[in-house]
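Inputs:
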Amino acid sequence: MSTFLGLPARRGLRGTSPEPALRGLRGSRPEPVHAPRGVGHLRGSEDFPAAARRALSDTQLRRNLGKATATIRAKRAAVVGELPDWEELRSAGQAIKAETMANLGGYLEQLEAAVTARGGTVHWARDAIEANNIVTRLVQAAGATEVVKVKSLATDEIGLNDALAAAGITASETDLAELIVQLGHDRPSHILVPAIHRNRAEIRDIFVAEMGDADPALTDDPVALAEAARRHLRRKFLSATVGISGANFAVAETGTLCVVESEGNGRMCVTLPRTLITVMGIEKVIPRWADLAVFLQLLPRSSTGERMNPYTSMWTGVTPGDGPQSVHLVLLDNGRTAALADPVGRAALHCIRCSACLNVCPVYERTGGHAYGSVYPGPIGAVLSPQLTGVEDNASLPYASSLCGACYQACPVKIDIPTLLVHLRARHIELQRGARRVPSAEAITMAAASWVMADPGRFAGAQAASRSGRLLGRRGTISALPPPLAAWTRARDAPVPPAQTFRQWWHSQHRDDAEPGPSSQADRDAQ
Amino acid sequence: MAVHSILSDVTRIALFATCLADTLFPDVPRATVTVLERLGHRVVFPAGQTCCGQMHVNTGYQREALPLIRRYVDTFEPYELIVAPSGSCVGSIAHQHAMVARRQGEEQLALRAEAVAARTYELSRLLVDVLGVEDVGAHYPHRVTYHPTCHSLRLLAVGDRPVRLLRRVSGIDLVPLPDAEVCCGFGGTFAVKNADTSTAMLADKMRNVLATGAEVCTAGDSSCLMHIGGGLSRLRTGVKTVHLAEILAATAGAPTAGTAAAVG
């Protein structure tokens, strides 16, 4: 018997997972589970159009985002352009990810065995609640009430800081932008640049009010702000006994975990504390050490627009006498196997969290990340969040795109995000069909349009009817239409239907044009 | 191109007018006919045609799209060469028809759809790649800026073909559009479902169009032009949107209707 992950339910492997609940994951759960409600940060409090409407009127946000995304787009374009084999690298990245997803269970078991053999401990967490409990218990077992954290989307996804706080444990973010977000009691708005929505004056005020050890005379000079953060964080690094990280990659073959960062705070967190706990989404595993050669080229160029990031930390289990002596890896599902179960949707799991798709997205650039309501914003968030939570819980996100395709073009592992968006829209409509007794107005309109368009005679009739719209406008335009098209004419004029459709014009010109066609069907159609 | 060989004996080109242009912008398919006939080709309009189904697919209604896809395939299957004055509709035909059919378990239809899609060309690709022309004999004495629509650019990779065609138009003053490759914000039902975000994108597109000092903004899609033109008209900018086909159809003796009439 195997699970949906393809994992054989072998008794021996469960020994590393003391939590009885976890055995379900390795045993025989029939249905993949979605990320549970009420914990973590995958769901917003309002739908995308409403949240976006508010964000669009935030002038500071619009300016910060416009400036930051334009800068990073230019940097990325420059460093991507200098690699002659960029397209081949993208294809390689895509192929490695596809291969990994096709045998995810096998690679995870290999990873578990390798980490365990090197003195690490692997924990399996079916969802956010289990992962939070595991980490809390590990911190308590280490006797710590304070932990330092490397910037980690996975721990943000599960709301780990909140869970630790509830257990009396203080978690300190050490990435500068995450620190700004944490001190400001705020939420990250970008995968890579979590405080992209803040300007330096706001950051100065947050530091003075919340840091506790900031000089009240602190200015908003970036050098002064960085120095204040550095002094504040150094005390944390030197006193913390537990570090918590995410992982950009985990090599199944060797059991090596890898964190890629820019500030050196990650290096501090994964080397100084006695205990190191890593929370990693199960999709982050890669098969071979050599695969890093592909991803360590793709990631920094796509992400920060750098040829190489300043700090790449890798660790493999425990090295006696050097670094953390207690090393844990928490493998997080939280809806990922549900995504994996969808042969189209699973491509969203290929994401390496570079954020290139955010920076090129014309929607993200204008609304910012908070409008998406999830720790994963932008185009990738619009296809990932609904799959982790179930489409019904993030139903507006697949529609939060004009399908322009810029994200697909920028994605370092060639995730066809527009196709995934269209796929998830179809899944959403299919779910609605099953759930609603009375079809929505939109469903009725779409069904009617389909019936009309399925027949050229009916279509011509509808065209004739649309000419009643000529009564609404003068001199070629209509300035107000009834709902739902009122949303169009709030900002744009609409065309007045012409006196004659193309079809009518054609038939007025070609009445006797018997078109010799290659088949009788064509003959009939061409009349 | 492989298709080139069939031109020696079959000069007939089937026109897919697209439901939007057929109904609201009939000058666009008319201009397409004008250009192709001026180049010596015969154009036919298969009367069974309606709509490619893209709106249904992109709004999630794949089941409802299926009859429209079947209609497109049934109608155009007999023709060797098909043209549509829309990057978006051709993009949907090329990238969605077979996919949607397969999802509904219609493998046979999917195979037929793939074959018909391979013979369906966006106008600039037909002219440059298949018919091998860049100078179509047009005259258009106006200052024009070109907006590359997302689906023509990214789904169909038309590249600079429309610009090459425009450069050969006599009298034209073609000026580059800043941030040209950024979406105008139309996105089909996105323009209504996310009207605020769509409008914010439109505002930036209009700002760039106005910065060029052009009288006319052109593109290969009536839908995007309806959106951009609707904004330009609402703000009384005096800048018009005119489809690429209309510019290519214009001559000194017959200037295109789009430059005289108000923007739709």
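The radius of gyration of chain B is 18 Å. Flag for discussion at group meeting.
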